[in-house]
Amino acid sequence: MLRNFTKHLLLCLLIVSVTATAWAQTSEITGIVKDETGAPLIGASIVLLNTKTNEKKGIMVNPDGKFQITGLSAGVPYNISASFIGYTTKTIENYLLKAGEQATLLIQLNPAASSLTDVVVVGYGSQKKKDVTTAIASIKASDLENQPINNAAEAMVGKMAGVQVSQGSGTPGGALSIKVRGVGTITAGSNPLYVIDGVPISNDNINTINTNDIASIEVLKDASSAAIYGSRGSNGVVLITTKQGKTGVAAISVNSYTGWQSLAHKIDMMDAYQYAQMTLESRNNTYADAMDAINRRNAATGLPRINYNINDSNAQRLVNSGNNTSAVIPTEILPYLNGQQGLTNTDWQDEIFRTAKIQNHSISAAGGSETMKYYASLEYFDQDGIILNSGFKRYSGRLNLDGKKGIFRYGVNITPSLIKEKRLNANGAYNAGNANGLNTGGIVASALHYSPLWPVYNADGSYSFAQNSWSPGQVTTLPNGSTITGNGETQAWNPVALAMLQKDDVGSNRLTGSTFVEAEIIKDLKYKIQLGVDIFSSAEDTFRPSIIPLSNTAGNPLSDAQASSRTIRETNWLLEHTLNYTKTFGDHNLSALLGWSNQKDDLSGNYAVATRGFISDQIEYLSAGLVTNGTSTRQQWSLASGIARVQYSYKSKYLFTGSVRADGSSRFGSNNKWGYFPSASVGWRLSEEEFLKDAKAISDLKIRASLGQTGNFNIPNYLAQGAMTNYGYIFGGGTPGVVNGAAPFAQPNDDLSWEKTTQLNVGFDAAFFNNKLTLSVDAYNSNTTDLLLNVPVPLTTGFSTELKNIGKVNNRGIDINLGTQQQFGAVKWTASANFSKNKNKVVELGPGNADIISTGSVANAYFLTRVGEPIGSYYLPVVLGVFANQAEVNAYPHYLDTQGNYDLNTSKPGDFKFKDVDGDGVIDLTKDREIVGNYLPKFTYGFATSAEYKGIDLNVSMQGVYGNKILNLSRRYFANKEGNMNNMISSLDRWVSESNPGSGQDVRANRVAKGSNGTTSTWHVEDGSYLRIRNIALGYTFPTDLIKKLSLSKVRLYVSMQNPFTFTKYTGYNPEVTNRSAATTNGEDYGVYPTAKTTSIGLNITL
Question: Which residues cross the membrane (predicted)?
């Protein structure tokens, strides 16, 4: 018995001993977090990082500000971080716990200088935000993390005051438009300069960048900040900085999302039965108008009146009207007019648009030691277009290295990318080819145009081309021997066939990289040499089968197949030397920069097209046909620059920055090879003054002012030199022919120089209530002088115009940014808003300040650039309404006939009533025009908010513009009531009769658009204001305790919607639309690839 008792006692002691030993292997930490007054900081976060395993533990403090974390490994160093919104994060590094220790910590957090301590990238360096004296907008990687973003420009939408980012087209992988503080040029390029990791790039499409690699994006908005880039800074500068390595164990991140895209907004079009009724009305009105005109002529010449009836047969109509085919009623509409059911009723938008997949998968690793840090990533992005047979794929990688050895620091940044695109010609008119010979331009316009009476496919499965002929009865023979008989509708092409049968494949490669070595020559003085390169190459192959013609001549076979091949290669080199001196003398801080830069760009390209000789549509290569045309090009430009900058501060209270850049460019005349671009800015941090020390509500307050000058060298090469180009000369004689020759393509101008922008900026930055509320305001006045304009020259020079520096444009406005960050217990909430107002005005133009009139994509669509007005205003006839009856027609001024007499029969009830602008009693639409709007908005705005609660996060962002107008040229065709193509559903509100006037604002149906109803006018101008919800993302971050067993430090799952809602009065697909990029003809909608709305599910994993 004693033996058994002893055995059990020893067993119990052993168990106790083992338990005690196991307990002794772990430790715990308790503590309290307080603010600067000693009050507990409720909701503060505590994160412990095991520096050996990289395992993290996190916890919120309780309502007393206390926390307790148990189960910690003994003998292991921990990094302990405490954070709270509006306070500086405090980190205790390498805290070593003893076995069984119960450590107690008292952590005090002080109010943060908030974003004022953030580092902002500026040209050729960086500054603390509190020391910045210029206007710079910035977003960080943390602003991009919680939502799927396809490209760098998209990350900027609605986030920065004074920076308008527009998605004018939904083309997969398409570039977005970026405008910084309005438009300051008329003929030169208006895109900003892009600088990636210190290397200015010449190809401004930044869609090759993996957004997960971006550490920050800064936009230099005012001339003082951009002057360091001299002749390229007038349109603003976008600095993109990529992520670098970090000391410690490699942090591996995986980011992946998959989504589904669909058409964001569908345009309501007529169905087949509504279309048939409108077509009947249009032909009847055309017949009646034609017969009235014939009978008026007969009465004037003594011929007998021709009696007609609106119910006349087609044969009788042709006889009576003198073979006017526009008066013929297409026989195919008759079953629809009779209400027969089960007939073809094709919705062509449903046929060309689809639900399309989008996906992005990337992996990155960051780590290193004190002597070498690295960041590496790989990415695959795949976006199918919402239009059939279109898409975009991107493969990219990155390697960033940063090392130290002795007095040297060195680094390499290299980014290869491969892009594959399936393009199609979505934009433009329904009947216009493109530069590659592909058919009829706009697939989108064709879908809106094409009659709903026709099917996509014939009974045998081939594509239907029922609308490929114009005149009724016209017979056209196809290459396969079959024929098409004309139906009287406007010639158009099956949009599904256009999308599926034509090929436009593009492959492009890009290598962007830089390497540098920096040495500390003596204390505080560093020399740096940097070599950068941007190599881009592209190959495009197109094919159009013979079944889809470029043009159609009555009775002739359709055109042969066509193939083309285009290659482009561009190499841009940069070599820079800089000396940087930084010194602190007591309360004085001084930084000085001297540098020299050389940059050279070399562009070459080849193009060849084969238009005859193809034996089969199945062989899609250039070599399968006869090459009938070919061109090649080679262009170079170079830039040599000197750079100097001084930054000074006294007690971090009084701030000054001054810089100058001298640029010598190959693009400009021999008398103006060099330009000089100075700037100066000052700042005063009032919050550091004694008289504001006791203002508890004010955390920081700084006022600043800047003045600087920048240039714009975005013009074609060789204009100043009058370089030669090839021309064909026709010689007569016995065997006339075209002989190749050469001639100057422009009048030489040795005085040609940069456009120059001088900008004054004043503003302030403020933070309140322990930096929980921030406010930044800037006001600016910008004058661009020496505008590059074509002015007339004597024809004896051999030219009609010459490019000269003449003219002036003014932009003035205000930018406001407001932000807040709050914490309510376990809820963290942030919000930011921005507002920008810009007013653009032309101050001076060419000789005599003559107006510049530019033509849009449709006849009579004019844009006017006039002194005192914004650039590129719409200059159109003004529609006052619709004539309700004949009495109104008779009482109003009319057009003149060919003899200069009133033609009282030009207009009829149901036609547009145009304003007699010049008041001469005559309607002359070449003169009766006025400025009726502009594409530039009165103001833009953006808003973003996020909330976090116990692992759940919600992020919402929105953006909008107000006061801009859109010239909706699509309405010229798809709301014209001509009965030769489908129309928008709004055409149901048309004028039908005096007793049925419809809305009173829309004209009658008429095949030949009487009364100038088809003239581009104010009826085609719409309000382009909108508010778009850009992103809604809901995510959940799994608790650390749950995922640590998988050796993961963070797992976040989210769902996201992009562009889910748009609030606008605009009737087109997209209120951000524009078919043109030129400053003088912007704001058109003439059929553009629509934007998509996207629903995605994503996963972020950190190891």
Answer: none
